Every structure is written in C-alpha cells, then in structure tokens.
Amino acid sequence: MHWQRGKGIRWEYKSLKSEVMFRSKPGELAKALQPLGLNELEESPYVLKDSLWTN
C-alpha cells in the first residue's frame, strides 16, 4: 500500500509544480496583478541619483 501513497504524493507534487510554472509566466502574472492596480511598465526603468552623494 505504500506504493499507492507514493504515487499520490508524486502526482500531487507534479500537479502543484505545473500550476506554479503556469502561474509564473509573465502573461499570467500580469493578469493576476491587474486587479491590484499593478501593470507592466510601458517604458524602460531609470536610475535615480542622489545629488548629495558623489564618488
């Protein structure tokens, strides 16, 4: 009976792993975050520089 338990655990692991991989796609993340008001950048990010800090 241990092999049946092992099969069930293996199936659950593979199922969860595939769901995480699917939800990690950029398009899926964008869809999930849109209701929170978070959108993809439409322009390149830029670096903020502190005018008091000099090298």
Helix-strand layout with pairing:
Blueprint: H1 2-23, H2 26-33
Structural features, described:
The protein has helices spanning 2-23, 26-33. It is mostly helical and 55 residues long. The radius of gyration is 22 Å and the shape is elongated. The relative contact order is 0.07.
Please give a handful of descriptors for the protein shown:
2 helices; elongated; mainly alpha
Global mean pLDDT: 88
User: What overall geometry do the principal axes of the alpha carbons give?
Assistant: elongated
The tally of strands reads 0
Low-confidence stretches: none
Helix content: 40-55%
Q: What is the overall number of helices? A: 2
What fraction of the residues are assigned to beta strands by DSSP?
under 5%
Distance between the termini: 68 Å
Helix and strand content put the structural class at: mainly alpha
Compute the gyration radius: what is it? 22 Å
Quick one: biggest sheet? Answer: none
Summarize the structure.
With 55 residues, this protein is mostly helical. It has 2 helices and no strands.
